[in-house]
Model the fold of this input.
Amino acid sequence: MLDIKLLRENLEAVKERLATRGAKIDWESFVALDRERRESLARLERLKEKKNLLSGGIGKLKKSGGDATALMREVEEVARAIREGEPPLAEVERRFDEFMLTVPNLPHESVPLGAGPEDNPEVRRWGEIPRFDFKPKPHWEIGEELGILDFARAGKIAGARFVVYHKEGALLERALANFMLATHTRENGYAEVFPPSIVNTASLTGTSQLPKFAADLFKLEGTDYWLSPTAEVQVTNLFRGETLDPDRLPLKLCAWTANFRSEAGSYGKDTRGIIRLHQFQKVELVKFVRPEQSYEEIESLTRDAESILQKLGLPYRVVALCTGDLGFGAAKTYDIEVWLPGQNAYKEISSCSNFEAFQARRAGIRYRSPGRTRSDFVHTLNGSGLAVGRTLVAVLENYQQKDGTVIVPEALRPYMGGLEKIA
RNA sequence: GGAGAGAUGGCCGAGUGGUCGAAGGCGCACGCCUGCUAAGCGUGUGUACCCCUUAAAAGGGUACCGAGGGUUCGAAUCCCUCUCUCUCCGCCA
Done:
């Protein structure tokens, strides 16, 4: 959610910046709604003041034994006016809130202008793309031949876009998660949390998946429960409605969770393999920081995610999302794309974003800076560190051998009981 | 799933219809006093929003005693619904 005052005072600048996202927003109705809301609110508050004053008078009068019938009749009139004024105000406020919740974040000034993914500039590249003296296979072939990825049986127990990991596949998934958590907690300074996978509407609204993107989520019928699409939701909402002690900032958390996405609208995209599933595991990094630090913190967050790929020896590049490709709540985003020989392409494996105060304002996450009377909103950031399934894909495809076996990256071996090769 | 108890300010804790944003204590901040420390004394100490201004503040107002609704001229106090916490029983990992 954007700062209402910013909208009122700098509407033209906001319009211009949001236009770079390609967002279509009905500004006329915003201006009208805002005016109507404030006028109506001020009028009702004046009436309430009058009512309170008169009611207090009744109390005093009764105590001193006087007759309050006339006063009471007068208050009744005021009370009626208030009752009549309330429903229209509530309606205006509902529409106003709805509007505010569907306006995307402002891109940061450092975000490159562009219309879509093709305009995302590459920021840096790391690692050598491996050369093969044979035709590298896609991970689903490697995995099925080794008997560690099982799509057929996953289809039986759940449906399309699910997988069952067998034997070393299951071990690899678990080892990768362990390795990532160990790195982030021991070396990168994150504290681990393990939250529920089910979340409520308020949480999803706080991090801005709702109200706009309900179609991407799984809802549990007859309840206010949803399957969380990313630990960003749980971990950011840990502190919803709280004022954080400034000494705790920057607060850095990481979490390993299962994530659920309906993948509505992505039929025909990445249909094979485990790139795009309804359930996948991910280690997420989340930060709560002072506003003045958030642009340093997105850099270090991205580096923390990159450190996993470097330790695993997986080549990747970092791209900066342009204005047209930026997610709804993000002010700035770096995507990390890992090299996948089976697809001969870089594929997103992490998305690191600074939301500035956009989520904090929705979720009411504040901090009090010393010497200031009012509290301020923190800035929130998050990024995958990393998507475990896609990392597993990268390992299989980059470390595959001519004979169909897969070498286990050295950094991972301690987490796999010393296993050197999946055969 | 069954039975019961509870939810008040940073914390503890009073408050069963009127001047209660809320006693008292603790904590915290500032000041005074005391040749250190401790004690003592005084003052202050929630948040959001609206109005008025604004560089900011001050000032005025509204709302908030778990959440939502209701009764009443008037609700922390009465009624209804929900959520959460605790205790006991059952069940499960």
Observations:
- DSSP finds twelve helices and 18 strands in chain A.
- The radius of gyration of chain A is 27 Å.
- Residues 23 and 49 of chain A are 41 Å apart (CA to CA).
- The mean pLDDT of chain A is 91.
